[in-house]
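U., I forgot to send this yesterday:
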Amino acid sequence: MNTIVIILLFLQITFIISKYPDNKTNPYFIYNFTTLPFANATKEYNETGKFYAYPSTIRISPKGDLFVSVPRHVFNNKTISRSIPGTINQIKDGLLYPWPSLEENTYNVGRLGSVVGFEIDLKGRLWLLNHRRKEREVIIYNKDGTYFKSINITTATIHRYHMSYLSNILLDLQRGFAYISDTGNIFGNPNDPAKTKSNIIVLNLENEFALKILQKDASSKPEVNYEYDDTFKTTIKNIGLYGIALTCDKKHLYYSPVKSRQMYSLQTYKLQDEHAVRGVDEIQNYTKRFASFEITSSARGILYYTAIDDNSINVNFYERDITFSITRKVGHDKEKNKETLEEYPTSLTFNGTTGMLFYLVNKHNILLDKDITERIDDKKVNFQIMSVYVNDRSYLYPCNFFYYMPNHFWVVILVVSLGLAYILIRIIKQVGKLDKREKIKVKENEDLIGLDS
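Result:
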């Protein structure tokens, strides 16, 4: 029996180990920019605008097209904002092409004003969080670039500060819900956490009703007294909710303020009825050790999150209690990427079913700390898009915790299973032999008793 226990334990450990991506720090460079090269850049952009334009979010369509958002944050100088050709762009051959067209991206004329966060569903539709004048909306485009529809969520956004923005959107199309993070007061840099007023917006896609939650809860607030690592050379801005993640079964929502070592989770069914108690008294709290921008989840049951002050991408399970006591890294690592000590990963996305994780590297926090009003020196800043193989895919795909195991693990499991089957057969045979011996003994005793009588 001890042998069986050992084999079963080995089998379990094999499954657990196989679920984690390798602890790799050898990513591939996809693009490396000093300033953002628009294919149709105007003279005004080349002379001024490019020093105020930086990428914020990257996503990849099911057929492999790479998209990037470039927010028009410079509200105090509309000339500079207007000079940025596209707020949503497709990257091809190292150039940015406004998508779906230059006309749709035209400042104060086209539908698209300024986009930070967006998502691409499995049908290839783009869901854009659009800021246009004082309005906030979700605009949906078909994969061919044709306009599909808009959902106005202005009533659920906070207007006390015009520079707050919607940073991420997650989709549960089976149940008909979307979850959106609102950073709140991001440029005012308040020392009072309550003044950030960040929140999460729950959007019912069927009746297009949007409701904000957590705006008064401590879990949406930054840690003002955040203690930095000795090697960290800058400060982290007092930003509230930014990163959110939805598990592949769509039953749990994870979220985290930027300037915080905490990560929180809620059961989504508690958020889907606007008449129900919002469930904030049942928030689960985890310590993830580092401040972070984006977090994302996968079909393998893993959370991926950027770490600002560690300059890395970390991973952890979400289908069990998260302790984050053991830090595992994929892709970026400050010890292996010394050329990017000041930059750090900010946005994460999977490339369909290829198993590749793409991530954006920039000085997002430093740029925000300057309120995007100070010129970016092109000799000191790099925008990089990199990728690393993690054998995983997005939360949008169905959960399959063991499907993505490396092939050699299946060989190990097969060998172990055959060995286990052999041992069980031997045990059954031994039990059969013992039972037969017992029957012989009983018969011999009966025969002896018969002779005595």
